[in-house]
Fold each of these.
Amino acid sequence: MKKLVIIIGAGIGGLATGARLLKMGYDVKIIEKNPCCGGKTGSLKAEGFTFDLTASIMMMPEEYMSLSKELGLNLNFIKLEPNYKVNYFDGTVLNFYTDLTNSLDQIEKINQSDGNSYLKFLSEGYRRYQIAYDYFLNKNYDSIDDVMNNTVMKGAAKSLPLTNSYHYISRFIKDKRIRDYLAFQTMYIGVNPMKSFNMYTLIPVISAIKGLWYLKGGMNSFVFALEEYIRKNGGTICLNTTCEKLFVTEDSIKSVITDKGVLSPDIVVCNSDYSYSNKTYFGNRFSKNKSVKDRKYHYSCSVFMLYIGLKKKYECLSVHNIFIGPDFKKNIGAAFKGRIPSDPSLYIYCPSKIDDTMAPAGKDAINVMVRVPNTKNKNYVWDEELIEKMRNRLIQTLQKVKGLEDINENIEFESYLTPKDLEVRFNSTYGNGFGISHDLTQTAFLRPQIKSRDLDNLYFIGDSVHPGTGVSLVLLGSKLLCEYLK
Ligand SMILES: Cc1cc2nc3c(=O)[nH]c(=O)nc-3n(C[C@H](O)[C@H](O)[C@H](O)COP(=O)(O)OP(=O)(O)OC[C@H]3O[C@@H](n4cnc5c(N)ncnc54)[C@H](O)[C@@H]3O)c2cc1C
């Protein structure tokens, strides 16, 4: 008889794991508290516009492509060029490409010596990425022996010079505009580029080398494809079903208690937020266990997102756009110091630039995102007044982008995502956007691991556990999880 795996949460982690386990011959049942799949990687559809709820940038495209191939999904990956269009507050506009000749043309126009330095930055970064991938990311850690393994320690020594991301970039690049562009990307996992250890400079390196890809229909088409695969292949997804408790005896979970009934699994995979799950499902089961109950984690920052449906198309936008505001270091650091930035730098996503399924004909759908403190910080209450203030600040900032001056008059639809929404809708602890923070003390073998050390039949998948945050790392995590169950 097939073993029954109950997966709590139909986020990208739960869906990818469910699809992989089905293919391996398990009986899979996913329970999801919300009325739709995808969790943070879901979508918002309104008035003919489709918005990716959060994730839009496809880091490590091979993780998406290999899973798609493995499951035979019918997805259309489109290579983007340029990768980013960057607008600066002083009116400078730069495009960055995967095509190195084009990027070098741009860079050398503004600083001759930075062309060569940019190549060195990429080459050194790629070397470090390969070490990081083999020794830290694509690897399960089950015991202290895995950590003390000589190869891992050598890998760490080779790849972790202890300077922060911004400082590390500055060792290569002279021009502040290029530095700011590269540093902006290191922030994608929700850590401060001025404080984070420089491993995250690998993010702009991978994007430049592997390119950025777009999935026709947006990131949420990956969610739909996984959901469809699961349903077609005999898996079950129970929407509007909340896990309330896990009934544990001795060293394993015997029952999953939901608001719709009790399930008896052989294996449990927990995709809901790691800290929320430990606090909510187990009661005092772990009171003697320091690794779960007593460890105090730091959480990544949160985000404020504005979704805008526009009455017309804006030629000045690329698919991925960055606006770098004045006093970049101060404003980027604000969210991590408990403040909302006054002159924010923004990420602007416009999938309708190349995908006419995302907006009605002749119109654009854009996401505008800024980092803000998570809700552990009590300085802000996400009420209507603050939302209105944030909305106006973002629109005023958008109007500084060349070509978007009249954006306020052309808004047909708008909506928002706040830290409070992340907390309430997805049970994200303190409304974190990117899971447990990727501080040096919470990374690789120091991060919560996929296989529970306490219960024999419990596994975790998602942005707070190893190998880390972002859709591609969560997909890689689902592969690592399945290795335990082969
Ligand atoms: C604004 C923003 C922008 C981002 N941009 C990018 C990007 O460009 N590229 C990228 O790769 N990543 C990006 N990320 C990160 C990415 O969205 C996450 O890493 C990823 O979605 C995490 O997926 P997950 O499966 O771990 O968690 P989740 O999506 O949180 O899934 C957990 C699921 O569990 C469900 N659940 C919770 N509690 C229960 C319960 N008690 N019972 C049943 N179900 C429950 C939730 O409803 C949810 O569906 C972004 C994140 C944010 C917030």
Amino acid sequence: MKKLLLSALALLSSASMVAQDKVFEGFEGWDYVMADWLPDGWTEQNTDENIFMLEEGAFTWHVSNREGTLPYPPEGSCYAVVYYAYEKDENDAKVDLPQDEWMISPVIAVSENSTLSFYAGYSPFFLFDVNNENVDWGKMDFKEGKRKPSTTLKIYVRSNGGEWVMLKDMYDEWVETSFADLFNNYFDSKFRKYSFDLSEYAGTEVEVAFRFVGMYGNTMEIDAFQITDAAVGVDRAFADKRVRPTAYAQGGNIVVEPRGAKSVDIYAANAGLVASKTLDGVNCTCIDGLASGLYLLRFNDGTIVKIMK
Ligand SMILES: [Ca+2]
Ligand SMILES: [Ca+2]
């Protein structure tokens, strides 16, 4: 009997891998309403609670259609975007805030022929800190020794849940370009396509991270994320390590399923932190007495769940 059970489990496990020609995410599943949304399986790590709460998550990775002066998406109508963060001081002047915002893909199995590609929208000029103390505007050049990054985009991959390995820092691509060239020819935000060979990760399951990090930079976007010759769906054993806490609205309350989480902070979209609860990691907890509205639940493992109740 035990043997039968084991082979049944083995069968389940192998059936959970779904071979596909490619994994593609164009960020088109957004409902045009939710203020801070990412596709199923995509997660994020936020700079801090201040950034997380400002402007309904606009300073964190989220999905949107094109707004203002941002470039048109290379695919469909929507993309993942993170705005550069600022707040207003007492004189109503903009004060830039440092950011370190991560957007992380689902787990994807790769083969020796797998290639990662995506479009990144950004302004090369604003990868540099062009505050006045760094720029001689008369000479149209950086001051001596004052060429330095503002906010850059770093791309990482990690295999089987291990350490993140950087594939690229956008700043490095432009570090030799002259100030005048950047200003005259690379000022506008445009989409550029990037590709990376993932063959060294063949036979493993990877995640890809987009890290928007620095200060005084500009808004960036990601679209048409793709890994060709990949298998979607995850090895069951590995997936089990990634079970995350969740929550849902029920009968006017919020029910929290901890799934290993030990605490949760509850934020109202317009009122900040309204409650903190200790969890036992196992049993569902019901949170009542909250007014109707949008809530953001932040668990101690970094998982964020948004709920309208
Ligand atoms: Ca798109
Ligand atoms: Ca977000």
